[in-house]
Amino acid sequence: MSHYSAKFQCFSGCDGSYPVTTAIYRCPKCGGLLEVKHDMAALKDRSAAAWMRLFDERYMRTSWPYGSGVWGKREWVMPMVTDDAIVSTGEGGTNLFWAERLGKQVDVPDLWIKQCGNAHTGSFKDLGMTVLVSVVRHGMLRGELNPRAIACASTGDTSAALAAYGAAAGLPVVVLLPRGKVSTAQLVQPLAHGAKVLQLETDFDGCMEIIQKLAAEGLVYLANSMNPLRIEGQKTVAIEMVQQFDWEVPDWVVIPSGNLGNASALHAGFEMMRELGVIQRLPRLLVAQAANADPMYQAYVAGNEIVAPIVAKQSHASAIQIGNPVSAPRAMRALKAMNGVVEEATEQELADACARADRTGLYTCPHTGVALACVFKLREKGVIQKSDRVLVVSTANGLKFTEFKRGYHEKAFPELDSRLRNEPVVLPANVDAVKAALA
Fold first, then answer.
1. Where along the chain do its domains lie?
2. CATH code for residues 96-120+235-409
3. Region for residue 388 given its phi and psi (left: phi exceeds 0; alpha: psi -120 to 50; beta: otherwise)
4. pLDDT truncated to tens, each residue of the chain (439 aa)?
5. pTM assigned to the model
6. What is the dihedral of CA 113, 116, 118, 119, to 10 degrees?
7. Element (H, E) at 65
8. C-alpha separations of 9 from 24, 35, 36, 269, 422 in Å
């Protein structure tokens, strides 16, 4: 058993701590959010150089569980979970893509895309779900947890990840989806994994309200990013990107964000590296939101530290179509600590950013399109400098959003001017017709 440890603690600073196998999602004293706190004094028993060497030696190895980019950093993530409890699909270790052609076009030559969508279920949600499901299994094996089911509200990617990891662990899964607001691929994934899929006549915020009530009554174990176990896995994106840059920190990290847990996760990863001496500075953070679902952007431009809920409008970036983000307080702390900026992208801007990126060899989901569009805007404003190294976290695989891609190129969305569309040319099957088309 590792001598390192982690526990739940109130985000607002209330006294008291709780085992991570406790089925709680808010502070029992004040009702605020929880976070995972590590024994940092114990982690300082190794030097920064020793930690970097250890993580490099383990990176994507075949020995269990180090084929996972998350569990290769287990002491910094969830050190008490034993090998027999870990549920992993080899998450992490995703490509860091130098977007050379796109970067030259937009005057950001040092532009990189962290391809988190190249994961088992096609999104970065795998990173957090491996930790959450493993902790549940660890608690069950030791008689500390006995959930009827693990459950989430989702705009698609969370449900896919939970269903896959639940199936791998042999645990019952329930997902609540807003009917008609997720892609076909995202709907099929939890169905294929055997989850109980409940499609509700509401939006994500309505699903989230119901799932919180079910969790409060002890009917389900909550798997949304309100549960800080998810943050622990997702923070490894920050650690891994620095590792892939030979332990150098980029100038900017850009994240498309809806429920805002991912902004907090990035901050947690960078802050942990800094406290343990692995890095000396934090990058700047750009939180990118769709203009149709932009509560954090509205708070930012108004100079408010509290993110007021809004009613989100329909967006092609469906996974971040969230008006009442539960992780907003955590994200605001991350924004302040990382000298951050919040920007938004319209539907036209995100669609064109996707098409532009795809023309240079990428295949971006609409949420990554939001992030790229915001990078373009901040470069035009001079906030991002030409010499800056900019890293965009691509949160999902573009293949999940075939309807969006097809609709753009077939000009099926009346609200969009598909100026970069590329339509197929239909010809008779003869060589002269093909020659004519080539000419």
1. 96-120+235-409
2. 3.40.50.1100
3. beta
4. 579 999 999 998 898 899 999 999 999 999 999 999 999 999 999 999 999 999 999 999 989 999 999 999 999 999 999 999 999 999 999 999 999 999 999 999 999 999 999 999 999 999 999 999 999 999 999 999 999 999 999 988 999 999 999 999 999 999 999 998 888 888 899 999 999 999 999 998 999 999 999 999 999 999 998 999 999 999 999 999 999 999 999 999 999 999 999 999 999 999 999 999 999 999 999 999 999 999 999 999 999 999 999 999 999 999 899 999 999 999 999 999 999 999 999 999 999 999 999 999 999 999 999 999 999 999 999 999 999 999 999 999 999 999 999 999 999 999 999 999 999 999 999 999 999 999 8
5. 0.95
6. 170
7. none
8. 11, 5, 6, 17, 52
d(Cα 316, Cα 362) in Å, to the nearest integer?
A: 18
* Residue 214 structure tokens: 């079910």
Contact at 8 Å (CB) between 212 and 226?
Answer: yes
- Phi, psi at 173, each rounded to 5°: -130, 140
Strand partners, 7: 37
Whether the bond between 147 and the residue before it is cis, its omega within 30 degrees of 0, is no
